[in-house]
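Limitations

Structures in this collection are predictions, not experimental determinations, and the ligand pose is part of the prediction. Treat each record accordingly. The example that follows, with adenosine monophosphate as the small molecule, is included so readers can see exactly what is and is not provided: the inputs are given verbatim, and the output is the predicted complex.
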Amino acid sequence: MAKLTIKDIDLRGKRVLARVDYNVPMTKQDDTMVINDDTRIRATLPTLQAMTEKGARVVLAAHLGRPKGKRVSSMSLRPVADSLSKLTGKPVSFCDQCVGRTAVDAANNLEDGSLLLLENVRYHAEEEANDPTFATQLAGDAEVFVNDAFGAAHRAHASTVGVANVLNSRGGQSVAGILMERELQFLGDELESPARPFVVILGGAKVSDKIKVIDRLLEKADTIVIGGAMAYTFKLAKGLTVGKSLVERDKVDIAQAALDKAAKRGVQFLIPTDNVVAVPTEVDGKFMFRDHRVNDSENIPDEVEGVDIGPKSAATFSEAIAGAGTILWNGPMGIFEDDRFADGTFAVARTVCEATANGAKSIIGGGDSVKALNKVNLGDQVTFMSTGGGASLEFLEGKDLPGVAALTEKPN
Ligand code: AMP
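Predicted complex:
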């Protein structure tokens, strides 16, 4: 069922509680916390603008990190309020509580079209417990709940599900923000009947994290391309050797089942035919890789670890990607954080962008693929980059996200 969005309702002069995803990376510099990457804050700007230009009085709720129910000063959202003021060009007030008298007063003092950011909801254990009393306090006097936090929608917490239930029970509306709507459109609707060929590229550390996604997409994709460490479990399933590579030996059966399903359905299933390998060693108690080289074979020798796809595999993968009508990419092809092992991931990133320029729809499923694209300044050359990590994967698995399920349904 389709959910109501902020485009469907009249927000004029309304009191709004909006859940946003401001779980941004920060580091400490001279005793203050500095935001390293404001992508998630920027991603909410269209929703903030849509609400404030209609004159809504908006209270923003978000979490940062995992303070586990305690006040941890390094996880305060105050720096985000400063960043928001700069990005929106208007003052954004900050309340160092998210519930209680001060928070209520701050919300009551809001003028039409203004924004207030509440302190980290995870400073209270009741948030993750989805405590109904806490949810009622957080909802305050809001007449509308806007959920724009796709990245937190896979969690049934007080600020995602609890407040939606409170609003729904008192006849208010709970609606999707613009970012949430776009995430559901690209990771959901667009992949239901994709332009063909539909090429799915998956990489990253573990088969176990993504096997449910592979299984579901085997029913829709024309080609599945596997890179990263997860490819080595597929190599084992094919009877190939993997040396010291990161593998999940207890997942060989499920890898084999995926290969069988691909063969049965006529889905092209590509894994690397060559790899960059390196010798894992320890120097002064520190782990490192030395002597990296291309291993031009499907088999990886005993003494080395696979750390990236090789140039032949990059060419084969690129050929499949270049002809795509729709591309879904999640996960790097190697240990791309180390420049020596990043070529495969960047080759895929470039080909995805070229295919997009030639008319393909490219959807990047969040996490490290987004980081890789941004690292080579290609983030704006794909059709859509998801802001969700775990939430994107669960959604791609076909699961109902509790934060989405709790929103008000569109009337027929
Ligand atoms: P994920 O969160 O599952 O997408 O995994 C991302 C991580 O997988 C990144 O930190 C990569 O460094 C890691 N990774 C990718 N390829 C390999 C590999 N061949 N060996 C070990 N780790 C890898």
